[in-house]
Design a protein that fits this description.
Elements: H1 15-35, H2 40-49, H3 66-87, H4 95-117, H5 122-147, H6 153-183
Helix pairs in contact: 1-6, 3-4, 3-6, 4-5, 5-6
Length: about 200
């Protein structure tokens, strides 16, 4: 059974063209992330893409101290949460992907809360980071499958933008992994603090 070609007035962008554009955007994003030491520029671009201002940073208790390190990590987590909340807003392309992005945001919130209250073990912290990574991968998988559908060009463009965001978030998560590892002294063993009770 042959499928009727999708027509929408103007020439429809092909799946190959979308894939090429997304691959080029990912390469550009990877270059940006490689060029910044602390990924602040990458976060700023994520916020700019969604017309948002980054949340203000919290004041550090003691420069170079443990409180300031935890504060810096929590600031970064809060920025990622905000960006994911924007991407997961209802009404955008791919509600299935938005569901995974919203779940990733919830795990980041749990991570930030546990770090702030100092009742999170290293094992729980890395489990939460793994959950975030999994949800970003699932969101990207959903978006990839929807890019193959005969959708109108504006919808495909929105899906492509959301894929760019998931790629950026994955890069930001890799940097966050390292920061969290430093908080726990590069150890996979739980800290002396008790694991959170759910």
């Amino acid at each position: 059974m042959s499928r009727r070609p999708w027509r929408m007035g103007a020439t429809r962008i092909t799946a190959d063209e979308v894939t090429t554009l997304v691959a080029r955007a990912r390469d550009d994003i990877a270059g940006i992330l490689n060029d910044v030491l602390d990924n602040e520029a990458g976060l700023a671009q994520i916020y700019a893409a969604y017309g948002q201002q980054p949340p203000p940073k919290t004041a550090a208790a003691a420069p170079g101290g443990e409180d300031s390190q935890v504060g810096a990590v929590c600031d970064r987590i809060a920025m990622l949460e905000t960006a994911l909340a924007q991407a997961a807003k209802p009404g955008g392309p791919s509600m299935r992907a938005a569901m995974y992005l919203e779940m990733a945001r919830g795990f980041l919130f749990e991570l930030r809360s546990g770090l702030t209250s100092r009742d999170l073990s290293a094992g729980d912290a890395f489990r939460l980071l793994g959950n975030v990574r999994h949800d970003l991968q699932e969101a990207d998988r959903m978006l990839r499958s929807e890019q193959r559908l005969p959708l109108p060009p504006p919808v495909l463009a929105g899906i492509g933008e959301k894929r760019e965001l998931t790629s950026e978030m994955t890069g930001q998560l890799a940097a966050l992994d390292k920061q969290v590892m430093r908080l726990f002294g590069h150890s996979d063993d739980p800290t002396a603090a008790p694991a959170p009770h759910h």
